[in-house]
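=== RUN LOG ===
request id: a7f3
mode: sequence -> structure
chains: 1
length: 589
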Amino acid sequence: MGMAAKEDGDAIRIKPEFLRVSDGLPNEVEEKKQGEERKEANGGGCGRERHEQEDRPKKKSKRQRKAERAVPGFCTLYARGKCVHAEKCKFSHDVEQFRASKPEDLPGTCPYVVDGKSCPYGITCRFEGTHPVMTEDWDGKALTGPEDEWNGLGKELQHMLRKNMVRFPMADAVLKEKGIRISYDKGRGSGGAATQDGNTSLKEERVEHRDTRTHPREKKLIDFTDKTYLAPLTTLGNLPFRRVCKGLGVDITCCEMAMSVNILQGQTSEWALLRRHPSEDIFGVQVCGGFADSIARSCELVERECRVDFFDVNCGCPIDLVCNKGAGASLLKSAKRLENILRCTSSVVSAPLMVKLRTGYADREDERVAHKLVPLTQDWGASMVTLHGRTRCQRYSRLADWEYIKTCVQQSNGQQVIGNGDCFSYTDYERCIQETGVNTVMVARGALIKPWIFREIKERRHWDISANERMDLLRSYCKYGLEHWGSDSRGVETTRRFLLEWLSFLCRYVPMGLLERVPQKMHLKPQPYFGRNDLETLFASNNPSDWVKISSMLLGPPPENFVFVPKHKSVGWATPDKGMPNTVEQVEG
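=== RESULT ===
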């Protein structure tokens, strides 16, 4: 943490009996040895780069993946009793032919059967052998039960969105009153982002802005004080992961960052991010966009069609792809545009509105802007502010500046402020609240590395969780994943992929019983170590092949020629005299 981390050393100290006699993390010795063998095989350094390029896994192109999906196969909708095309369907309805080519069932029991429900995937389920025995005249179709998740996208609504037939009366009235041009029309799906029309829209929005204050709709406020809050995490903050965190004590959850324009276009993948499980009793939707029209319209639509407790406007995402479209952290450079977004959005939704900020855009202290924006956001319609103690240019490097967060809290005029950055234990959580005055702390990467941090906070203790208990959490995740993404072959492999992404963060946890000094600091690199048993050592591996091995223990063997390349780089260790390197991890929304 920014207030106390300087007194720490440059590495996490491990008890002597668990130390490896080597330099590097677990499995780095084997990787170094393999690298030396490749170097010798290539005649020293000659041809090394070429050899590494040959070994690098090649991703399939988008065209290849689309072609594979287009290959005629068994109709999964037919198996689920939802195919409406009958004989005109381009996929096969031959149950016997499918059974002959279907791979063997995976070990374990169907997650739906475990819960006493009917599996909606029928014969396509990879655990079909555990289904209850059906009558002889059963045609292979699933016995579908009630939907266990909320906020789905119906086909009728999707069709209307794609045909530009959906109306937004409240948003359009507010935009018209404030003189803001509606740039999102049929045939112009960018919402003004990264286009010539978008630049014109931005200029007109600045010129035509009127100081006509639209009164925000009456809102039922949510008190975040002393409540644990799981940050919206891109890719990894999916519904199964949030369910695991709910089981470990988190109070407030938020979906992954959703792009407002994609919501308005009716994209299935974007609406899937809004899915909510009934166990999520306080649930928010984080929207990202660069212009008032797209954000106000998307929030009006989501509140009308979904169950949402609060909205979060993202002004902190550092990804270039987002910032180049005028969204995310780039809004920190345009206070007028941010004002328009908050005023318009707060006028069309009844749920509380939160805004997620960083300390600034540029990595210079004199260019920090959060202390100027925080006092203004309440007047603009935001009920709460989340402040990440880093600039956009820092991304996730170096330590979060909690002293600056304290300064912003002092200027917030009583508005709820949620701090964010480097919280990795209950002592970090309590210190941040006591020393800065924030209402609570939003936990992001800390929850990916040790999701049981929420239980530690509630029970005010450091939990020396065993390897078997960690494996039980992974089993729960796989069960929730199969229920969410499906228990057929595609659902199993989707669950595997997201499990592997999560394992790329879990490997950074060092068991408490191995530490000379408790608690572990997120930014410090551990000394190379062995675990207390083989499973604990396996969890500590930073080798993707070992992550695949763990997934095989839970989901069966992967497909032939399976290769996993982490989407996010999770290693961001501190280096002497340099704080933390400029990593590329971009997991927090």
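=== NOTES ===
The radius of gyration is 25 Å.
The chain has a mean pLDDT of 84.
=== END ===
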